[in-house]
Amino acid sequence: MDTMSTATACDLWFQAEVGRLSTTDERTAAEFSRRQEELEDILLARAKEEGRAVNELGPAPEWGEEPKGRQPRIIIIGAGVGGLAMGAKLREAGYSDFVIIEKSTDLGGTWHHNNYPGVACDVASYFYSFSFFKNPAWSQMFAPGKEIKQYLSDVADHYDLRRNIRFGTAVDRCLYKDGRWHVETQTGEVIEGDFLVPATGFLHIPKLPDIPGLDSFEHDKFHSSRIPEGYDFSGKRVGVIGNGSSSVQIVSSVVEKAAHVTVFQRTAQWIFPAPNDYYSEKRRRMLEYYPELMQRLFDFFMDMYNTGFGNGAVGDKESQRRFAEACEANLATISDPELRTKLTPDYPVMCKRLIFSHSYYTALQKPNCTLEVEQIDRIEAQGVRLTDGRLVELDVLVLATGFDTHAYCRKLDIQVANGPLLVDAWQEGARSFESIGLAGFPNLLFVGGPYSTVGNLSTMTCAELQVNYIIRLLNEMKQRGATTIMPKQDEQDRFVEEMEAAVVNTVWVTGCRSWYLDERGRIDIWTKSPEAFMERMTSGPDLNKYELIA
Ligand code: NAP
After folding, report:
1. What per-residue confidence (pLDDT) applies to 307?
2. Predicted confidence (pLDDT) per residue in 215-224, tens digit
3. Is residue 486 part of a domain?
4. 418, 410, 405, 338: which is closest to 370 by C-alpha?
5. Do 422 and 528 sit in the same domain of this protein?
6. Are 130 and 264 part of one and the same domain?
7. From ligand 1's centre to the CA of 287, what distance in Å?
8. Which terminal Cβ of the chain has fewer Cβ within 10 Å, N or C?
9. 391-393 and 195-198: which strand pairing?
10. Same domain, 116 and 234
11. Is the pLDDT of residue 403 over 90?
12. Are 254 and 109 within one domain?
């Protein structure tokens, strides 16, 4: 076996990976894993013989040549996934005059704030990374939050971004006047720049439930994204309101330690069974030597998420059928018919953002866990009062009630002097042109704004695609000697119409409430296929659709 070529060994390892992930038979999966381990031994020995470098990324890249003439000054807001992608790509393209303003004390955005027990990403880790900074070291199929934060920290170090980040700086107002953006911080300092890039994300403003008496609870109470790191749930009676992705991860983890966990469910959710395999140290070491295998893993998972999943959400019936079958089979594993009924949704699979978990149903069937479907009447000093009069006494209450996903960067108070305010432009709902610009707002470029969320596609990929579009836009402006740009209103209107026309094909409007819909029932995420988003981002920008001012 060890006489085979390195390329063949890589090929066989990859085939075994695909086989392992495609089978539902445990023995076949174990056989694939065993073959992979043998091949890893061979590939590790070969790497030594061939003198392969461990870290193919090597030292920080040579920065691109600085664009000729005056450099535009770029102000990025947020040092999460979007802001860091923007910084890395600006650095690579030779734009050195940029600042990333971050209100927190550290980078990572969502992955800095969410420290709840069990926090992890439900996008496969090999795909939940930037294509320009792949990570062979992920410890699991779905990486824990801490590892993702470490990954983002490594990106920042590799691209030497920390020197551009202003931590602990909250923005109060962004005003465009006299041809420049003036960003006023909460301390009154004004930072000036040519371009403003809000990269504030959409899963960062906690949404608290409007349940009467919320403030009267006398014990610990946290929104899911604000549970202090290391908070001890041991021996406590824990109540969790909500049953979305955050709740499912919290409940699955906390049930091991808590005296009792009560999940307050308003609407049942579909759960896709997704085992969270651990990756061996040997596999990780092997992948460090073989970037070609990392690339194949990245492409494989991207294809799986795009065609297998993303297309289902926007209308592909075959994909919907496969996901529905898997979720129904998962639900059928619940042995108690009464519990199964409580957990059965009355809307199609993927209507709400699909939850991936291999442990939630197990957690709910433990003796120290109760799924409460009686609705909440109010919160009291000692617990949650239900509409049938019962009081569920609690020591700690977790509000896993989601985020204000349609706020985007409204809080930055963005406005053009003697011109529009962003909150007014978005009065009828958040919008943008091709997820990047906004008519009426010169040199405002979003990363992670309206129409940038693409079903279950990796946020890292979405951000990277947008950032590459923006860099091309900046380069092209430079070539044309233009300093100011904004989308033409009619082009934006056409784009928004295109997005709204495609909504009808999506599963998101098939009769459920979800964070995809705003309070008017309007959808402002990308409504076409993931491939269509990629195509739009990689073929753009078409500067004919923008107004350019030299
Ligand atoms: P979410 O999906 O918006 O879920 C919020 C939950 O709170 C829902 O079950 C909702 O019930 C319930 N709720 C809201 N207001 C309520 C009220 N007044 N009374 C009772 N129940 C109420 O929020 P999330 O779980 O934080 O997840 C948000 C998104 O963050 C995810 O979809 C995902 O994109 C991301 N996320 C990802 C991961 C991951 O990668 N694994 C982990 C966490 C979060 P209804 O269904 O009845 O509205």
Report:
1. 81
2. 999 999 999 9
3. yes
4. 338
5. yes
6. no
7. 35
8. C
9. unpaired
10. no
11. yes
12. no
Strand order in the sheet with 180-185: 190-193, 180-185, 171-177, 414-416
Q: Do residues 210 and 232 touch, judged by C-beta distance below 8 A?
A: no
Which numbered atom of ligand 1 lies nearest the CA of 353? 32
Atom of ligand 1 nearest to the CA of 224: 26
330 to 226, 245, 508: CA distances (angstroms) = 31, 16, 21
Between helices 281-289 and 26-49, what is the axis angle to 10°?
50
Distance of CA 531 to the CA centre of its chain: 18
DSSP string of 241-310, one letter each residue: E--SHHHHHHHHHHTTT-SEEEEE-SS---EE----PBPPHHHHHHHHH-HHHHHHHHHHHHHIIIIIII
Domain of 480 in residue numbering reads as: 74-205+405-549
Whether omega before 541 lies within 30 degrees of 0, making that bond cis, reads yes
Is 8 contained in some domain?
no
CB contact at 8 A, 122 and 355:
yes
Residue 88 belongs to some domain of the structure: yes
Give residue ranges with CB within 6 A of ligand 1: 120-122, 203, 209-211, 224, 241-247, 249, 266-267, 353, 400-403, 513, 515
Residue 310, both tokens? 């993303």
Structure-token match 């021996």, residue found: 235
Among 127, 240, 246, name the best residue to mutate to test ligand 1's pocket (greatest count of ligand atoms within 8 A of Cβ).
Answer: 246
* Model pTM score: 0.95
Cβ contact 223:401 at 8 Å:
yes
| pLDDT, tens digit, 9 for 90 and up, residues 44-75 | 999 999 998 876 555 455 555 555 567 899 99
Q: Are residues 539 and 447 in the same domain?
A: yes
**CA geometry: angle 449, 453, 457, nearest 5 deg:** 145
Q: How many domains in the chain? A: 2
Average pLDDT, integer, range 360-389: 98
pLDDT of residue 445: 98
Per-residue pLDDT of 459-518, as tens digits, reads 999 999 999 999 999 999 999 999 999 999 999 999 999 999 999 999 999 999 999 999
407 C-alpha to ligand 1 centroid (Å):
16
- Whether the pLDDT of residue 358 is over 80: the answer is yes
CA of 268 to the centre of ligand 1 (A): 12
What's residue 66's pLDDT?
58
Is 31 domain-assigned? no
CA distances from 176 to 37, 392, 417, 430, 455 (A): 58, 52, 6, 19, 33
